[in-house]
Amino acid sequence: MGQPFSRRQLLQRASLLGACLALPARSLWAADTPRPIPWRNWSGVQSCLPLERLAPKNLDELVQIIRKASGKIRPVGSGHSFSALVPTDDTLLSLSNFSGLLAHDAQTLQAEFGGGTPMSSMGAPLKEVGQALVNMADTDYQTLAGAIATSTHGTGIGFGSYSSQVSGLQLVSATGEVLDCSRENNPELFAAARVSLGALGVVTKVRMQNRAAFRLRERQWLGKTEELLEDVENLKRDNQHWEMLVITHSDYALSVALNETEDPSTPPVPPDEEGGNGFIDIIEGLDKHLSDSPDLRRSLLNNMRHLASFDDRVDASYEIFANVRNVRFNEMEYSVPAEHGPACLREILKRIDDGNLRTWMPVEYRYVKADDIPLSMFEGRDSCALSIHQHHAMDHREFFAAIEPIFWKYEGRPHWGKLHSLGARQLAALYPRWKEFTELRQALDPHGRFVNAHLASLFGLNIG
């Protein structure tokens, strides 16, 4: 049976064409390119015209590029960050040739990948060697180095971000020095480099602490948002991975629970159901045409729940975690202390309803375990991550500006890969180990070779 309101349709995967726009072929990155080639991210909100776009073939070539480059150097992955981490007028550096499974250990269940490996290319080779990532985000287009640079995460009170799963990494510094880092080797740098925003150097290899391969069962149901919030302690305790997608301007949310199972895999979802946009179009249309009749819009959205039906899905973990994205959007996400999650969500929804704010995309609500990484959004505290979205063709600025102060009220920390307006002064107050990171960054890259305008604003630097 179809799944009209499934997670696969409420927040859908980017089209392959959109992803390819951010991943140019090797020939387009050659050092002798006669003229600059524009770059833009997946949603189109960030762009730049770099002087060079380079994709070194190996470590030696990468080292030489870093040593010889004049001006700023910014590593680029799949272009799935919404914030301005990548844009530069100087050198964009792709690690597309640093990809794939490099080594694995059956005893420790660790595996090493090239930093430029797309997360979508990790599940199958890990399964072949009997391993799986402990947890995954609900998109898998990011590159591994990019995902850990921004503390990208999934959901589940027992699970941290990708960065917390890192057991070792290799980094090339601003001077071209190759540094191998772990808790035993360069421990201070290892701690910081697990969430670095690409400001410490170029991460070429990452070793992940995994677990034995496993299957997941996905169960979905529509429930009243307030009732789900009242039951949130049970939901997050009784499910390994739980989240909800709140349908804005309605009283309902899609609740999604993922739990490990030994049951056999279910048949795959047909492509036409997986990528269909029919009900997405209806929700969008209601927002567009009934914004002047909010009561009628709410009534119609609430009654659409009767059209929804959901079948459980069982498959390899990486097949269940990841979702389709063929509706482009821009996103803001903050993580607040876990205990403040329900109150923060209630206030966001009230602001949307009271202001009749134009949006039709859901509010995503997830939980993440605390870690010990200086620039992780989850450093020192269990957190609730709340994400708001706006269709790429709609102006997100007014909507995000209306919601963002609510996150500040609850001591929210912005996702490094998502849009936000905070600068150095506000960020330093949110991160107890801010000074530790910034002093290390200054020691490693005193001339700011890896610092673009966005990073300069984050760290309070004058880059000239």
From TrEMBL:
Q: Which domain of life is it from?
A: Bacteria
Any one Gene Ontology cellular component term annotated for this protein: membrane
> Which keywords label this protein?
FAD, Flavoprotein, Oxidoreductase, Signal
Whether Signal counts among this entry's keywords is: yes
Give the range the annotation lists for the signal sequence. Answer: 1-30
Q: Does the keyword Lipid metabolism apply?
A: no
GO molecular function per UniProt: D-arabinono-1,4-lactone oxidase activity; FAD binding
Stored Gene3D superfamilies: 3.30.465.10, 3.30.70.2520, Uridine Diphospho-n-acetylenolpyruvylglucosamine Reductase, domain 2, Vanillyl-alcohol Oxidase, Chain A, domain 4
Q: Which residues form the FAD-binding PCMH-type domain?
A: 46-213
Under Pfam families, the record lists: ALO (PF04030), FAD_binding_4 (PF01565)
Q: What is this protein called?
A: FAD-binding protein
Instruction: Give the organism the record lists.
Output: Aquipseudomonas ullengensis
